[in-house]
Design a protein that fits this description.
Layout: H1 16-23, E1 29-34, H2 41-45, E2 49-52, E3 72-77, H3 80-90, E4 115-119, H4 128-143, E5 147-151, H5 154-165, H6 169-177, H7 187-194, H8 201-222, E6 227-231, H9 239-244, H10 246-253, H11 259-262, E7 265-274, E8 280-288, H12 292-306, E9 328-333, H13 345-348, E10 353-359, E11 364-368, E12 377-381, E13 389-396, H14 397-405, E14 411-417, E15 423-429, E16 438-439, H15 446-469
Parallel strand pairs: 4-5, 4-6, 9-15
Antiparallel strand pairs: 1-3, 2-3, 2-7, 6-8, 7-8, 9-13, 10-13, 11-12, 11-16, 14-15
Length: about 475
C-alpha cells in the first residue's frame, strides 16, 4: 500500500491499508491487527493515531490470528478522541475469547509521576530526519512538564528480537497452515514460517521462560515512569527498498514495537512532526497493562501541544471527548486530604491522581472543626455562601470504598458542585458539628486558613522573644 504522503514510500505493516484510508479522510476510523506493531507503524508513517490496547481488553473473536497468544485488534483514527470513543464500544470481557480479560478496577486513570523514559541507545539506521524529529519530541515532552530520562533498552531489544528469531514463529506457522498450504504462500511469508521447523517443544518452553524474565525486567524498569517514549519506527523506506530486502527492512520497522505485546504493555502511537522531505514521523508512548486511559489523556495533551494537521487534511486538532473509562470516581477534597496535607497519603496510596485545583460553586461555607486530629474543616451547602478552594482527584472505583471507610464523623462523602456547574463526590459535614465550629469561609479555603494560623504563631513567637530580650 502506497504511503498517503508520498507514493514511493511504504505506509507501514500488514494493517497499512487501514491507516491510509483514515489518513486520506475516507473513513473516520479503521481497525488493524497488532502482533508486532502493525497497529502503530502505519499510524506513524501516515500522520494519524494508533491505539494498541492492553491484551485482552478488546475481544479477538473472529480475528484471523498471527500469534494468537499476543494478537490484539488496534484502532486507527485522526485523533485520540475518536480512537477512544471507538475503544469504548469495543472494550469488554468476551467469554467466547479464551484470551479476553476483565479490566481491573484499581488502575490509575492518568499519569502522576511526571517522568517519561526514553531508550539509552537509539537506532535510526542512518535516518537523520527521524532522529531530528525524535529530539523534537523530547523537547515537546519537556514542555508539557515531564522530566525525560534514558533507561537501559537492552531487555526491550532482546525481547523484540525473539518474536521473529525464536520459537514464536511456530505459532505463526500454526495459524497460516490452518488456512493455506505452505507452498501456496508468498515467498517472504514462506521464509518466515519455515523457520518454525528449526525449533522443538523444548526450545519453546525455554523461550517462554526467557520471555517472562525479560518482561519482568521491562516492567520493573518502567515502574518509576509514567511511560516510555520511542520512535514509532526508526526510519521509513521506499517500496522498492523493501521489495529488494524484505526480511531485513521489515525487521527494522519492528525495532521499537515487537516487544510491547510480549511484555504485556499498552501503547499509543501519536503523530510527531512532518519532516523536511514531507514525510510524517511518529512517536509511541508505552505503559504497563491497563494504563490505556492514562495514555489517552496524555495523548490529548500531546495533540493539543503539537497542533499538527490531521492525516493529509488541513484540519487541526480540537478536543471533542472527555476521556473516561468509568473505572474511577472523581472526589473533591477540601482540607486534610489536599496535596501536602497530612491525609493526602490516603489518596496517593490508593492510586489516586490529582486532576485539577479548582473551586466550588459560590454557595458553600467552610468551618474549622473542633477536636479533630489532624485538624479538619467541614464543608456545608449554604445559599449565601462562598466559592471554596478544592482539589479534584481521580480515585480507582475499586479503592474508593477504602477511602470512604476511613472518613470519621462528623464528616461524610456526598455530592459537591464545582464552579463550572459540574457535580462530583466530595467531603461534606453534618450540621450538628458546626454549632461550635469557626466559620473560616472568608479565607476562601483551608490552605489560606492554615497559612494565617502559621503567620499568627510566628508573630506571637517573635513578640515573646522580643519581650524576653527586654
Amino acid at each position: 500500500v502506497k504511503n498517503s504522503f508520498n507514493p514511493e514510500y511504504i505506509s507501514g505493516g500488514s494493517s497499512s491499508g487501514s491507516s491510509v484510508v483514515v489518513a486520506n479522510g475516507l473513513v473516520p476510523f479503521s481497525l488493524g491487527t497488532d502482533t508486532a506493531g502493525s497497529g502503530r507503524v502505519p499510524a506513524g508513517h501516515n500522520n494519524i493515531v494508533g491505539l494498541k490496547p492492553t491484551k485482552g481488553w478488546f475481544s479477538t473473536t473472529g480475528l484471523i490470528p498471527a500469534c494468537r497468544t499476543i494478537d490484539v485488534i488496534s484502532i486507527f483514527a485522526l485523533t485520540v478522541d475518536d480512537a477512544w470513543q471507538v475503544a469504548q464500544v469495543m472494550q469488554g470481557y468476551d467469554a467466547s475469547d479464551d484470551y479476553s480479560r476483565v479490566h481491573p478496577q484499581n488502575v490509575p486513570s492518568q499519569f502522576s509521576k511526571g517522568k517519561i523514559a526514553i531508550p539509552d541507545t537509539l537506532e535510526f539506521y542512518g535516518d537523520a530526519e527521524t532522529e531530528k524529529a525524535f529530539n523534537l519530541a523530547i523537547a515537546r515532552v519537556q514542555s508539557l512538564g515531564y522530566t525525560v530520562e534514558p533507561i537501559d533498552f537492552a531487555p526491550f531489544q532482546q525481547l523484540a528480537t525473539a518474536l521473529y528469531n525464536r520459537s514464536w514463529v511456530a505459532e505463526r506457522t500454526s495459524a497460516v497452515e490452518k488456512m493455506v498450504q505452505r507452498e501456496q504462500t508468498h515467498p517472504v511469508i514462506g521464509q518466515i514460517i519455515a523457520q518454525a521447523d528449526r525449533f522443538s517443544a523444548v526450545d519453546a518452553m525455554q523461550d517462554e521462560y526467557e520471555r517472562a524474565q525479560l518482561a519482568r525486567k521491562i516492567n520493573v524498569a518502567l515502574e518509576p515512569f509514567d511511560a516510555l517514549m520511542v520512535p514509532t519506527a526508526p526510519t521509513i523506506y521506499r517500496i522498492a527498498e523493501v521489495e529488494a530486502d524484505p526480511l531485513v527492512k521489515n525487521s527494522h520497522m519492528g525495532a521499537y514495537t515487537n516487544f510491547v505485546n510480549f511484555a504485556d504493555l499498552t501503547a499509543l502511537a501519536l503523530p510527531n512532526s512532518i519532516r523536511a522531505d514531507g514525510l510524517p514521523t511518529g512517536v509511541t508512548f508505552i505503559a504497563p497493562a491497563w494504563m490505556d486511559e492514562a495514555l489517552a489523556k496524555f495523548g490529548q495533551k500531546w495533540q493539543q501541544a503539537s497542533q499538527l494537521k490531521l492525516g493529509t487534511s488541513e484540519l487541526s486538532y480540537e478536543k471533542t471527548t472527555e476521556i473516561s473509562s468509568g473505572h474511577s470516581v472523581k472526589l473533591a477534597v477540601v482540607g486534610a486530604h489536599l496535596t501536602g496535607m497530612p491525609l493526602n497519603f490516603q489518596l496517593t496510596t490508593r492510586s489516586g491522581t490529582l486532576i485539577k485545583q479548582t473551586r466550588t460553586a459560590s454557595h458553600y461555607k467552610l468551618y474549622a472543626l473542633k477536636n479533630t486530629t489532624p485538624p479538619k474543616p467541614g464543608l456545608q451547602y449554604n445559599a449565601k455562601g462562598f466559592s471554596i478552594e478544592v482539589e479534584v482527584w481521580d480515585i480507582p472505583r475499586a479503592l474508593f470504598g477504602d477511602i470512604v471507610a476511613e472518613v470519621p464523623a462528623p464528616l461524610g462523602i456526598g455530592n459537591v458542585q464545582l464552579i463550572d456547574g459540574t457535580w462530583v463526590k466530595g467531603f461534606i459535614c453534618e450540621g450538628y458539628a458546626l454549632e461550635d465550629a469557626t466559620d473560616i469561609s472568608n479565607f476562601g479555603g483551608w490552605r489560606e486558613f492554615i497559612k494565617s494560623k502559621q503567620l499568627s504563631n510566628t508573630k506571637f513567637k517573635c513578640e515573646c522573644i522580643g519581650e524576653v530580650a527586654k
